[in-house]
Amino acid sequence: MNRVHRLFACTLLLALVLTLGGPALAQDECTVKIGLVTDVGRLNDQSFNESAWKGIQAAAEQLGLGEECYNYIETQDTADYIPNIELFIDEGYNVIITSGYLMTSATREAGLLYPDVYFIGTDQDQTTTVMVQLAGAAEETAVFVYDPIPNVAGLVFDESVAGFLAGALAGQMTESNVIAGVYGTDIVPPVPRFGMGYEQGAKYVNPDVEVKAAYHPGTPDVAFVDAQWGSETAQTMLNEGADVIFAAGGTTGNGGLIAGCTAGYPVIGVDFDQYYTVTEVQSCIITSATKDLVNGVRDLILAVADDTFVGGNVFGPAGLAPFHDWEEKIPDEVKAKVEEIKGMIAAGEIETCPVDDEKYGAACIMSGLGRGLPDAAMVMSDYCSACHDAERIETNVAQGLDWWTTTLETMMSQDGGPELTADDVKVILQYVHQ
């Protein structure tokens, strides 16, 4: 059976100092002991970490576990991912959830070190590195290939789908014909996947709409906890004519939501239904671009309990939350169009992140949106929802070397890297299609 491999490159600084939260670490006997290690965001971030915690609570309730059987650690510094994980392991925890893309390497390392412990990494693609020497490059190129570990599940999502639907709604609701997105750092792939989908969806329904986008310029340890930047950035965009704000980036994004609502404009949340978590914006939030983290985390914990857990990538659903207070305000024809698009995406009639699109194609197969990446570093399919589909990859490969040569040359030129030769493409295909 063919395995789909991803070409992926990203240079990230990973570090952390821990802060314990919740009750004291459990000492009692539990059928399952569950620990959550957050990324640098706080547990009550009203978004990503909080969703994972709610998933743990839901699983604990379904399994009849007491509070002594689950706990969390809040991460404040990027030097202690493994020590935080090992603190739980030393206390006998056998299911550990790690929150967010930046914890991928630490989660996989821990999974290999502790094969009897189950790990669930949210937004963590299960890849490993292979170094490939390309004829056009002075140094070896990092090629990340899909490499599942039996006791590690990566809960991942097609964020561009949720972003596309959010954009399709915003593109119809705008009166100024200008909409905006306020985001965390673009070196964490799920964030630009939301952003790219948002712009694609808006322009699908309204080709003339202007879509403003701003990614936090800071490092990952601050890019998701900077509410002031989110608020000020959103206000700047409103002053420039935007009348719908989409915000994706933890506390940073929440700042953008609150700024938009305070100014009296509709806003769109992210990750899960923020109508219930950012209560300040209930009158303004028209929907949220959601990833079903709660049920995804819950189901994987239950899989551990009933001995059906399987390592590797596990894809959760992505879509839109209910319209809540805006249910009667959004015109029926707008709702109908969003539903039509949702069906077309499900049927494969719309690609939310098409690899052959002039503007988005390279971004769908590379992580060149991040700053400071090596010239020769490359990525395939990490940004693209359609590219997660093994059949899609195989179809593209079957189209021949010309397609891949053009695609990869575009990618490399945008990343400032060397030109690729036909021999280079053949080497790459050995990892993509084997």
DSSP, total strands = 15
| End-to-end separation | 8 Å
Overall 3D form = globular
Share of β-strand residues: 15-25%
Percent helix, as a range, is 25-40%
* Count of DSSP-assigned helices: 14
Protein architecture, described:
- The protein is an alpha/beta fold.
- Among the domains are: 159-292 and 318-346, Response regulator (Rossmann fold); 361-432, no CATH class.
- It has 14 helices and 15 strands.
- The chain has helices at residues 48-63, 81-90, 104-113, 159-173, 190-205, 220-223, 227-239, 250-262, 293-305, 332-346, 361-364, 390-398, 401-414, 422-432; strands at residues 18-21, 34-37, 70-75, 95-99, 118-122, 127-132, 141-146, 152-157, 178-183, 210-215, 245-248, 267-271, 285-291, 312-316, 318-320.
- Strands 1-3-2-4-5-8-14 form a 7-stranded mixed β-sheet, with helices on both faces. A 6-stranded mixed β-sheet has the order 10-9-11-12-13-15, with helices on both faces.
- A hairpin with an 8-residue loop joins strand 6 and strand 7 (141-146).
- 55% of the residues are buried.
- Mean pLDDT is 78; it is low at 1-27, 359-363, 365-404, 414-418 and 429-434.
Brief overview:
The protein is α/β, with parallel strands linked by helices and 434 residues long. The chain is built from 14 helices and 15 strands. Helix 1 packs parallel to helix 9 and helix 4 packs parallel to helix 5.
